[in-house]
Amino acid sequence: MIRFSKVFKAFTKDSLALKDISFRIARGEFVFFTGHSGAGKSTVLRLIYADEPPTSGTVWVLGSHMHEVSRREIAGLRRRMGIVFQDFRLLEERTAEENVAFALEVTGARHNAISPKVMRVLTQVGLAAKAHAYPRELSGGEQQRVAIARALVNDPVVIIADEPTGNLDERATRGVVQLLRDINAMGTAVIMATHDLSIVRPTSYRTVELQDGAIVFDSGEGQVPMTSGA
Amino acid sequence: MRLTVREALRSFRRAPVLSLLAVTTIGFALFVLGLFGLVALNLRATLSGLAERVEIVLYVTRGTPVEIVTIAIGDIQAFPEVDEVEYVTEDQALERARQELTEFQGVYSDLETNPLPASLEIRLKPGFRDNEHVTAVAERLQGFRFAEDVRYGGDWVEKLDRLRSIAAAVGLVIGAAFGAAAVIIIGTTIRMTVLARGREIQLMRLVGATDGFIRRPFLLEGAIKGALGGALALVLNYVAYAAVSRALFEAAFFSAGQAAAFLLFGTLLGLAASAASVNRHLPAT
Ligand SMILES: Nc1ncnc2c1ncn2[C@@H]1O[C@H](COP(=O)(O)OP(=O)(O)O)[C@@H](O)[C@H]1O
Ligand SMILES: [Mg+2]
Questions:
Q1: Assigned CATH topology for domain A1-80+156-230
Q2: What is the DSSP letter of B57?
């Protein structure tokens, strides 16, 4: 589904954000990218969702070679991904429901197909009752659930989450991680970057550790979960 | 589609003053253009009326036999430029003079001999009613031996024609200046909207909106402003037309087709301005 081969990324002339990165991620997999701040986690994810091109090496995502994709193809790829951020990125002047519907509207979905889909994902993230609430009326954990619902509404192949629990307290963190695990259990791949090892440790998901832009540890491809503790 | 319309309308609420300014500048640009268009339109109507009346008059030397004149009429009728030739006899000339020049009726009725010469009135075909052709035909007519004098009045037709070109050019220049101002204002509104919606546009990209989709509300916004400007200009032009018609003379207004073209032009102007601006201001990612 996703493959990096000898990928380098330089934002400036004299420093490398990513050095010789190679890995594969299979459909349905759950992968953590870990490492200290500045290790290159976000950069890996940005290369996956084509926010940046690689400086050298090859990146394949969902069958596309990221060196030569057109802007139109990028738009198409992003409809098959759901992207979640630390800061939620909800639109303040829209309700939870409208924020989720936004992802369908901008892809030109038929108007009467939108509402049922939106309610389905809001129910899936446990926020059906707060569909009409504005972001400022929701807790951090709830806002992130809305963002996850928005990521889910296009039935993505993969959810890409960059520090999704970075702004959340411990309880909300557990809830969001559990939600992502449930989503993964239904077949959607999840790629999550986090520096919080207390999230990663109790799980048996594959973990790729970055340090100064290089992979220093990869617990292995297509690993079968051995424990199922939260 | 709904999103496109909603976003396009939202920008009017976000920047009402600037939007109004954009609409009024487009309106004034097109108003000025339209005003000179009306001037040109009315001049042309007047000119074509005058042009129809353009004729060359050949005064026949007294004593010329009627047969000679008749043969000459046949020759003149064969000129490619000539539409019709009318023979006005001396008596007819006198009769006309009596009718038209009522002040001198007494003078003419007292005359014992008719002082007026017979004449040929020559009218040219529509495509030849300009100064150049009139002069050429007049010169040829001078070649007839019985031609005492040949008169024509093409000069002032040409002057009016030149006036019409000048009016059109002046209108174009002033209209273009206003048009440029309108384009700049539309550009500014769009830059503001892009800034105000920066987060949203970024998010649209992240959830897979195409560039075309992201641009659409801006284009619609520009087109709406252009159409409103065009409508404003039409209203102003109509007011000007009505005022002139009432106070000065019976003028002509745009036909329905011309008015529609006017609106379309405004719409395209707004669309083009926003297209140019949105390409420049949309963030790349
Ligand atoms: N847009 C950018 N311009 C310049 N340097 C950048 C940019 N984005 C990231 N970097 C650099 O790349 C490195 C990796 O950053 P990042 O991928 O954000 O790390 P992480 O997400 O693991 O904290 C850092 O040294 C960071 O300063
Ligand atoms: Mg990061």
A1: Rossmann fold (3.40.50)
A2: E
* Phi and psi at residue B151, to the nearest 5°: -125, 145
Number of Cβ within a 10 Å radius of residue B110: 7
Measured CA to CA, the distance from residue A52 to residue B215 in angstroms comes to 22
pLDDT of residue B102: 65
Of B2, B3, B206, the CB nearest to A78: B206
Environment of ion ligand 2 (residues, CB < 5 A): A 42
**Domain assignments of chain A as residue spans, ordered by start:** 1-80+156-230, 86-155
**Is the CB of residue B279 less than 8 Å away from at least one CB of chain A?**
no
Q: Strands A64-65, A56-61: parallel, antiparallel or unpaired by DSSP?
A: antiparallel
Do B21 and B188 contact (CB within 8 A), yes or no? no
pTM listed for this prediction: 0.70
Closest CA to A31 of A225, A175, A230, A167: A225
CA distance B1 to chain A (A): 7
Query: Which residue from B1, B203, B211 is facing A71, i.e. has the nearest CB?
Result: B211
Cβ contacts of B240 within 8 Å, gap of 6 or more: B35, B38
Say how many C-beta atoms besides its own lie within 10 A of residue A85's C-beta.
21
Looking at per-residue pLDDT, the higher value among A7 and B3 belongs to: A7
Asked if residues A213 and A54 have their Cβ atoms less than 8 Å apart, the reply is no
CB atoms within 10 A of CB B172: 15
> Of the given ranges (A75-79, A187-191, B190-194, B200-204), which has the lowest mean pLDDT?
B190-194
- Rounded to whole angstroms, the Cα distance separating A65 from A69 reads 6
Place of tokens 């102007």: B269
CB-hemisphere CA count at 13 Å for A11? 12
Distance from C-alpha of A197 to C-alpha of A159, rounded to nearest angstrom? 20
Q: What are the tens digits of pLDDT across the range A44-70?
A: 999 999 999 999 999 999 999 988 888
Structure tokens at B203: 């998010």
Given pLDDT bands bounded at 50, 70 and 90, which one contains residue B285? low
Q: Residue B256: pLDDT above 70?
A: yes
* Exposure on the CB side of residue B68, measured as CA atoms within 13 A: 10
How much of chain B is helix, strand and coil, in % rounded to 5? 75, 10, 15
Nearest-CA residue for atom 25 of ligand 1: A38
Q: Tell me which of 3.30.70.20, 3.40.50.2000, 2.40.128.630, 3.30.70.3040 is the CATH number of domain B55-151.
A: 3.30.70.3040
Q: In chain A, what is the straight-line distance between the N-terminal and C-terminal CA atoms, in Å?
A: 26
Burial, A76: exposed, middle or buried (Cβ in 10 Å; 0-12, 13-18, 19+)?
A: middle
Tell me where in chain B the CATH 3.30.70.3040 domain(s) lie: 55-151
Q: Identify the residue among B13, B14, B200, B206 best suited for mutation to test binding to A, counting A beta carbons within 10 A and taking the highest.
A: B206
